[in-house]
Design a protein that fits this description.
Strand content: 25-35%
Shape: elongated
Radius of gyration: 23 Å
CATH class of one domain: Alpha Beta
Largest sheet: 5 strands, mixed
Strand order of the largest sheet: 3-7-4-5-6
Amino acid sequence: EKGAATEVVVVSIGVQQAQDTLRTAMAMGADRAILVLAEESPEPLAVAKVLKAIVAKEEPGMVILGKQAIDDDMNATGQMLAGLLGWGQGTFAGKVEVADGSVRVSREIDGGTEEVSLKLPAVITADLRLNEPRYASLPNIMKARKKPLETLNVADLGVDTTRRLTVVSVAEPAQRAAGVKVGSVADLVEKLRNEAKVI
């Protein structure tokens, strides 16, 4: 809408049902979509390799991803993609401004925010605060049905998606003991010294 992009292409890697998500993205304003079919949920490195192949085909000026996956919370795909492409990256982006062949990213860090400037093309991973997704109106949902959605197979891209990680075990954290109320500072100091042995 600001004229910074001439075309928005959305990509998903997964099963056939991911078409619904891509159609929703087109109803929100994307111009076209690409679905890469994969039998099982690929690992972050495999996703980054698939996206690298898509980038080579599409030649975008900027790639925007979520900051982490909802299934494994890995927070790795964007960084791996930037590394494979040799592009600059702005992670945890809360604000993005494009101008004169570069992009300024305000990113969230532990101490507050950090501003970085990157030459385009670049990879951006979006934080929750980057924007408020628009509502997909009924007319736009109808228009999205006519927008192009290309379907590819991982094999078509020549990408090795062999799993390299194995989940050895999953366990709940140990149960914590109930807290205790103390009547005075002296009681607190005594319990910290004699029971918890931290002072």
